[in-house]
């Protein structure tokens, strides 16, 4: 079992990014919902972070498929 991220191949990096990213986004949504008062700022933070996560997943998927 490989523990460190840099020891993983592209397929394993994609899988780990998929499930840990979802957990991190859920945690971020909860923190933003309870800690940020402005509704537009809440929405902007959530949209930006989700967009970056999806772009990273696409990048990791293409690296995995081209391996």
The share of residues in helices is: over 70%
Largest sheet: number of strands, sense, barrel closure? none
Overall geometry: elongated
Q: How would you classify the helix and strand content by structural class?
A: mainly alpha
User: Gyration radius, to the nearest Å?
Assistant: 15 Å
- Uncertain runs are none
The amount of beta strand, in percent, is under 5%
Kindly state the number of beta strands: 0
Number of helices: 2
Q: How far from one another are the termini?
A: 21 Å
**Mean of all residue-level pLDDT scores:** 93
Written as H for each helix and E for each strand, in order along the chain, the element string is HH
How would you describe this structure to a colleague?
The protein has 67 residues and is mainly alpha-helical. The protein has a domain at 31-67. It is 81% helix and 0% strand. The chain is built from 2 helices and no strands. Helix 1 packs antiparallel against helix 2 (39-66). The longest helix is centred in the last third of the chain and has 28 residues, at 39-66. The protein is elongated, with a radius of gyration of 15 Å. The model has no long low-confidence stretch (mean pLDDT 93).
């Amino acid at each position: 079992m490989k523990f460190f991220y840099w020891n993983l191949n592209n397929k394993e990096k994609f899988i780990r990014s998929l499930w840990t990213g979802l957990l991190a986004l859920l945690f971020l949504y909860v923190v933003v919902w309870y800690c940020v008062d402005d509704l537009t700022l809440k929405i902007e933070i959530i949209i930006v972070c989700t967009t970056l996560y999806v772009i990273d997943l696409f990048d990791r998927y293409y690296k995995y498929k081209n391996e």
